[in-house]
Amino acid sequence: MASVAHGPHQRLTGSQKIGCFSSPGLCQLKWESLLVKGVKHKRCSIPSRGTRFIQAVAVPVAPPSEDSADCRKQIAESYGFRQIGEPLPENVTMKDVIDSLPKKVFEIDDVKAWKSVLISVSSYALGLLMISKAPWYLLPLAWAWTGTAVTGFFVIGHDCAHKSFSKNKLLEDIVGTLAFLPLIYPYEPWRFKHDKHHAKTNMLHGDTAWHPVWKEEFDTSPFLRKAIIYGYGPFRPWMSIAHWLIWHFDLSKFRPNEVKRVKISLACVFAFMAIGWPLIILKTGIAGWIKYWLMPWLGYHFWVTLPPAPHIPFKSPNEWNAAQAQLNGTVHCDYPKCCDTIRANQSTKFYL
Q1: What is the pLDDT of residue 116?
Q2: Structural contact between residues 171 and 114, judged by C-beta atoms closer than 8 angstroms
Q3: Which of 81, 129, 254, 261 is the most exposed place for a label (fewest CB within 10 A)?
């Protein structure tokens, strides 16, 4: 979410404390000890499950030490991760990373792309059928299926935004726009902000998807404090919704050369709402709108609400490294095969 004030733009010092919340969603960081450059640690401290805030989040990643492998293993086990990779050496650039990848990963597979569309659309249609036939006590299962299936639409639009869906770029933009419509997500605004997120991943004051909250703000704002606590817990989807609303409908957040495309996407979304919603209500009533559209939509926001990992720091621009941010600052999530299949195989994709 981007509505929180960032505080003074200054380099972090060891005495500063920040909490963190993410978009879509909110998160409190709980790690009590970080490896700080120039400080020798004799042992690895494992984070507790409490709600205390960590110190000096935005610090350089320490060079590997003799016990760093064991430390990473313990942290991974504590947070349920399969593993935590080694820190990337300082001299490795994004070009080095890209050059090391096989050519095959840059090839566009039309068959695979359209297969993902077929699976997601079929799964979503099946979900709507399940909702129409299920007794009331099975509706949560039908909503869970349909919300998972419609997340596949987002993944397809995500592929289009990364220009990895088709060689025909106009077709990509059309498919991306259509895929985002059931989510009432404007495609071009999301694409512009997502590109900036990848360009400035985990950079303080630059990343558009993850934003830190200064401890002073957390301590002085009871509303913000409760929003983070509840947003990271029972209200996670609503934090994703807040991010969707704040970031993607305000023309002032976009550069002049982006505004025309943003307006086209917004017109498509508003047209879908103006035509689609009344048709749903006309045929099924307000209860049907909640049943067939709103509940699966909330399920989608549940899937895309992922908090940042506690061991990954935000860095100020003068300390930030693109390759380290993209590789060491990214968490890969594994999902059950059945969920991943109907969500267009989201967990098998990684973008630089």
Answers
A1: 92
A2: no
A3: 129
Crossing angle of the two packed helices 256-289 and 187-199, in degrees rounded to 10: 120
pLDDT at 305 (0 to 100): 78
State percent of the chain over pLDDT 90: 45
pLDDT digits 0-9 by tens, 123-179? 999 999 999 999 999 999 999 999 999 999 999 999 999 999 999 999 999 999 999
Residue 14's identity, in one-letter code, is: G
Cis bond before residue 24 (omega within 30° of 0): yes
Q: Tell me the C-alpha distance between 14 and 305, whole Å.
A: 30
DSSP-based helix, strand, coil % in the chain, nearest 5: 55, 5, 40
Is 59 within 8 Å of 36 (Cβ atoms)?
yes
Token pair in block for residue 345: 């195989």
- CA nearest to 141, candidates 249, 285, 299: 299
**What confidence score (pLDDT) does residue 59 get?**
41
pLDDT of 311 reads 78
Angle made by CA atoms 176, 182, 187, in degrees to the nearest 5: 35
Nearest CA to 246 out of 23, 11, 7 is that of 23
Q: Report the candidate in 26, 20, 85 with the shortest Cα–Cα distance to residue 55.
A: 20
The low-confidence residues of the chain, meaning pLDDT below 50, are 1-67
Asked if residue 256 lies in contact with residue 201, where contact means CB atoms within 8 angstroms, the answer is no
Closest CA to 324 of 100, 91, 103: 91
Query: DSSP per residue over 62-96, as a string?
Result: PPP-TTHHHHHHHHHHHHT-S--PPPPPTT--HHH
The pLDDT tens digits of the residues spanning 247-267 come to: 999 999 999 999 999 999 999
Q: Cβ(301)–Cβ(240) under 8 Å?
A: yes
pLDDT value of residue 125: 97
Report which DSSP code applies to 55.
B
What is the C-alpha separation between 77 and 56, in angstroms, rounded? Answer: 23
Residue 249 in tokens: 């409908």
